[in-house]
Each structure stands twice: as C-alpha cells, then as structure tokens.
Amino acid sequence: MDKTNVTKRVTATILSMSLLTVMAGAAIAPALGIIKAHFSQENDLLVQLIVSMPALLIIVTNFFFLSISRCLRTRAIATTGLLLYVTAGAGCFFVNDIHVLLVMRAMLGISVGLIMPLSTGLLAYYFPPEEQARLMGLSAAMNQMGGVVATLLAGLLATIEWNYAFLVYLMGLIAVVMVWLWLPNEQLGSANKRGIPFEPRQLLKFHPSVVGMLLLMMIFFVFPTNFAIIARQQTALSSEAVTMIMVGLDVVAFFVGIVFGSLMHWFRQPIKYFAPLFFLLGYASYLVPSVAMILIGSAFIGIANGVGVPYLNTIASIKGGKNSATTVMPLLSAALYLGQFVSPLVVIPLSHNLFGADLTAPYKVAILLCLVFLVQVWATRHFQSLPPK
User: Which H helix or E strand runs over 311?
Assistant: First the structure.
C-alpha cells in the first residue's frame, strides 16, 4: 500500500479522536436548561455536575495513563476509550435517574481520559518535530470543529426531548471504525520502566507548558460561563444572536488552528505571547457595552484559544519526543480540564471580592489572569523557545 496513503489514514484516525474530546462537557451544555427543567426537583449542584463531572474523571485517568499504556497497546486503549465513550455518552439517552446519569457521565470522563493523550501524543510519536506545529494546529482545529458540531446538533436534538441531546455521542462510532481499520498497534509505555502511575519529575520538566495550559483554560472559561448572561444585559442581543457569536468564536479558533503551522513559521519566537495578549485584548473589548466591541472581543478570544492550545502542545511534544503520549500529554490534558473545572471556583469569588456587583467583574478578573499568564510566559521563555530551524 502507498506509504503516503497510510500516513494520511493514520493522521485522519488520530484527528478523528481530537474531534471528540471537547464534546465531553460542551456537547450537552446547550441542553442544560432543558435538562434542568426535567430534573427540577433535584439539587442545582447535581444538575451542574452533569457538565463538570467528566472533567474530574478525565484528570484522574490521565494520571494513570502511563500505567495503562504499559498494559495495553494503542489500538486497545483507543478502542476501549471510544467504545466506553459511545456507551456512556449515548447511554444517558435511556437514563431517567440523575444519580445514574452522573455515574454515566463519570464513565464518559474515563473514556476521554484514555482518548485525549493519544489524540495529541500519537502525532509526536509518528511525525518529526518539523511537522508537529501543523499537525497540532489541525488537532486543535478538529477539537474546535467538534465543539461547533456538537453544540449545534445537541441543541437541535434537545428540542425534541431533553435526553435526545446525548445521542450526539454516537459520533464516536466513526472513530471506532477508523481505529480498527487504520491505527497501528504500538506499545507506548514500553520505554518507561518505572512502576509508578505518575512521575512527579515529569511535571518539573514540562511545567512551562503544563502551567501555561492551566492558566489558558482558566482564562478562556471565563467566556462560556459568563458571556451569555453579561452580553444580554449589556446589549439588546437575542439568545439566538448570543449563541451564534459563541459558535462564531469556535469557528475563528478552527481557522486559526488550520493555519497554525504557518503562524509558527512566520512568528517563530513572538507567538508565545499571542494567547495572553489576544485574551487581554478580547476581555478588555468586552468592557465596552456595544455589539461591535463584543464581536471584536469574541474574535480576539477565538484567536487566543486557536493559537494557545496548539502552541503549548507543540512545544511540549517537541520537548517530550516520541514518549510524549505517556509523559507530557497526559499532564497537559489534566491541566486543560483542571483549568476548566477551577475557573469558576477562582473567578467568581475574586469578582465579588475585588469588583463587587460590577456586571463585567468576571472580565476584569480575566484581565488580571492574562497579566499573570504574560508573566508566566516571559519567565519561562527559555524553556518554551523552539529549537533552531
């Protein structure tokens, strides 16, 4: 078989997993209001956990990924993760008890914890450093596209009945078939001899990217957790218009991911500052209560997210080499979902304590976090520098 065709199929298979990972929480976020109405007798915290529960289990699973990779080969890990993804995700369609639903959501988190390191780490395993910026950009773009498709499709399905939104996870069956047909069966953990599930020295080695990913996600998640509420109070935008702006942000991030390889070539050294600076410009734009500034701010935040994630993945994969899937990528995955989970826990108290009842207080806290992010990037610039061309 033509080697070029084999390479394309392997790449497409890995990218198909990237398409699914963001859907752990984002897929049913548009249906949360309908789900909350259905479980109106339940505690609000339990309803919120439907979205956040997967993130906790993703983090836990990532810390054990090295041990798992010693026991199972890549095809077995990917197949197990994807089948659990489809079963636990779409299986919620048949559940009408919120406690069982939360168990299923926890299982979904475990599945993404298995898939996520492979979706980026295998790119470092199969491809040389000079190709990784382009591929990490494509991976991030697929991640964003998964968010767009899942958000629109789940929102549409939820209009039929609350539980129909969970059928969006059947998209994972496409990746299952591709893995069975085209994913090579590597033993990723064989090069790592130590018998502990997580090696703390890896965190010391890769801390610039790991801390950067944590800060990036904390800053970005100020947007989805606050934008719809604040934008409607600032302007006369309808719910549909706000939804389209949020989807548009993902579309901007998608196109930035597509051209990320070229951006890395053109802005080889300064690109490390793009994410914190564009986040800063985006949230600063939101402080002006006009539709034009909201659109500009959303475009800036889309650019920041579209650049930031593939940049940190690229730097980490180059530094981690072929073992990235079992060393740094699980750490980055854990940091990504930890950032999502802790963002409201940090931002909401700081907003109240620093800015009181100010409507735009979350955006002001995001700006402060952007400054911290800038300092972190500057302080670790030696570690984040790319090798010479």
Answer: helix 291-320
